[in-house]
Structures are given as C-alpha cells and as structure tokens.
Amino acid sequence: MTFPLRPITDEELPQLFHALQDPFGFHSDGDDVEDFRLTTELDRTLAAFDDEEMVGTAGAYSFELTVPGNLLVDAAGITIVTVSATHRRRGILRSMMERQLDDVAERGETIAILTASEASIYGRFGYGLASQSSSWTLETDRATLARPSTATGRLRLVDADRFLEAGPQVYDRRRREIPGAVNRVQAWWDVWQKDRPHTRGGQSARWYVLHEDDAGEVDGMLAYRRNRDAEHGLSRNVLTVDQLYGADDEVEAALWSFLLDHDLIHSVAAHGRPVDEPLRWRLADPRRLVTTDVVDDLWLRLVDVCGALSARRYGTTDRLVVEVADPFRPHTAGRYLLDGGPDGAACTRTDADPDLTMDVADLGALYLGGVTATALHRAGRIEEPTPGAVRRADVFFASSPPPWMTTGF
User: Fold this and answer.
1) Does the keyword Acyltransferase apply (predicted)?
2) What own/partner pairs with CB < 8 Å and gap ≥ 24 does 224-230 have?
3) For residues 356-378, average pLDDT
C-alpha cells in the first residue's frame, strides 16, 4: 500500500499541527496553531495521506548554517518528522526522507541538519552526530570567580520590547562565529517573545538584561527565568538561563556574574550550553559547576559532498582522498579528493586510492569538527587505508570553538 506525499495547503495547517500532538506527546490550542503558522514554510512541508487522514509529516526551515572558518552555508533544517502510531513500519518515513532530500538537493542546499527526538532514527538516512550540548548547575554561594570579567560598560534590566530591539542583533553577530549555529528569522523572535505560560516549564516569565559598552552600544543579551522555593527558611530559588550571548567572552562573563551575584538565589542552571563552557575555567573551584547532562544535539547530512566540503575552512593545509559509502542515496557515494586549508578548499571526484573510508553519516559527524577522526576510527566507524591519515584528519577537520547548536528548531 502506498501513501501519497505532498506539501500541505494553508487550510490544512491545523490538521498538520494536530497530527504532531500524539507523536510528540502534547495537547494544544488555537494560539499554538497560529504561532506554528508564523514559522512554517508551507512549500517545505510534506505530508503522507491515507485517504483524507494525515499519517506522516515532515518539514524544513531554510537556514544559514555557520561552518568552520566563520562561513555561512545554506542548509535545510529538518523538522516536524512524525509517523502516526497506526501506520508504523509501512515505509512512510523512508519515503518522506527520500522525497525531502531530493527537494533539498533541487534547492541547491548542500547540507541537511536536524535535532533528533530519538538518537537511533536518522543514522540510516545518512545523518551523523555533529555536535553535543551540556546542561549544568552552579550553587551561587560557592561560585567565586578567580578571573572576573574585564568588560567595561554597564548592565541594564529592560522590558521585553527594549530587549527585542537589540537582542536579535547581538545573537546574529554571535552566531556567525559559532560552527553549528543557525540564523533566527523575525518570525522566530515573534513567537519567542510571546512567552506562553505553557512553555515556561513551571517557572516564571522571563527577565531581560542588556549589556552596553562604554559608548552605549548593546553588546550582550541575557534572558532568564526563576522559580521560588525554600527549605528550613533558606532560599532554594533557581535562576535558569534562557538566552545568553555576548560580543566576546568578557561580556558573557559579565552576564554570568550578574546571575551569580543575585540575592535569594540558591543556584543558576543552564541547559543546551556548549560543551566547552568557559565559565568553568573562571571559577576558583571548577568542581562546583556540576554537569547534569551531555546529549547529542545537531545531526548533519551532506547532500552535496563536494559542495559542503569546499564551503568550510580547515585547520591545516592537506590533501585527503575520502571514500564515502551512502546506502540511502547511492549516487552520493564515491571517492572525493579534498584539497584544503585555512584559506580555502576544493573538492573533486577522483579514482585515486583512498586515505580514509567512511559512511556519509560519519563524514557528517566530522564536518563541523565536533568529533575527531581518531575517535571514530577507534569506534570502528572509519577505516585508514593510508597509515597516518586518521591523525592528519584530526588536525585537518578540527574546529575552534567546537560546534554548538545555539537554538532548537
């Protein structure tokens, strides 16, 4: 039995949103549907139908992805992928993934990215684990900074309107320096600023802070929530970071200091932060920053291998022949000569003997520098026909800073 696939119409958007609720485990209302309408690219949606019933969904956002070298690449941000529980194991997911990647290729996008609700789903479609994120807590009464911020200027508590006049510009400048980050369109901010009560996780509405430099220009942004709790008359209140970005590390350190210096606050919590959070290294006692979770974050698939490999910069000048297997899209498989360095890169197909062999998913994992070739080689995911090629690839694909997916989608 086949299930027709096609983009949805505007009139069908409430039906699509309803189809998401059981797979993702939520109930919704009319406000959520309208928020969803603001950010959905209808021509990038895909739905599978059983008669009139919508039994599979998928979509994509048109993103700019920052890649090593602070360069921007057009990428498809895959989203809202579901199959109804009544129609599992009938080939719907596979057919949607095939159709979607064909569309990505036709649009000239070299990369597809996603965040996965389950980490076991997307490897078979060529997506590799390209970045991770961490969550942590820090008790404020033990959070002495051995290296305080040197940023000058001032901090200002502001309302949401003032924050949204300047905050998006701070984010946009910062995301261009972080491999794995994507742009946020105005519709994203329009939905975010509504701060719907059911999106707060039981915490307060947001507070907003801007940092201004000596000239009065905004160069840092912070949004946070708090809960209220006490034990034996002692505060157990928690501040939870929602957004924190600065023009540089010193501005970000000033924003962290603001949070840690609060009265009546037991701890600061942060979720979805970079794995190399510099705050730990500013603390007099780095053990006090307790990592509570490290999880996979961004998954990446190369759709046009040469287009993607030539779009980033590399840690050292080298030439590597990479043999790529791609069972899901066999025409992508082959041998590629990558000649690159800090100033540019070129990629062509070749018949030369390979230095490295790997699945396209593992090339996706390497692409942003979030894992070393050595780690993948030790895990049995990369082979090394040319002795020493794995160590060369470690330096070649390295990224500083490591990739960080700064925003969910």
Assistant:
1) yes
2) 224/259, 225/200, 225/201, 226/265, 227/202, 227/203, 228/204, 229/266
3) 98
Domains and CATH numbers, the chain: 5-109 (3.40.630.30), 134-295 (3.40.630.30), 305-397 (3.30.1050.10)
* Residue 94 marked in a binding site: yes
Pairing verdict, β 299-302 and 128-129: antiparallel
- The phi, psi pair for 137, rounded to 5°, reads -130, 155
Is 149 annotated in some ligand binding site? Answer: no
Q: What is the pTM of this model?
A: 0.94
Q: Is 82 annotated to bind ligand?
A: yes
Q: What are 206-215's pLDDT values in tens digits?
A: 999 999 999 9
Residue written as tokens 């000058």? Answer: 152
Task: Give the active site residue among 122, 127, 224, 314.
Answer: 122
Please provide the DSSP assignment of 67-117 as one string: ETTTEEEEEEEEEEEEE-GGGTTSSHHHHHHHHHHHHHHHTT--EEEE--S
DSSP letter, residue 264: T
Task: Specify whether the CB–CB gap between 6 and 47 falls below 8 A.
Answer: yes
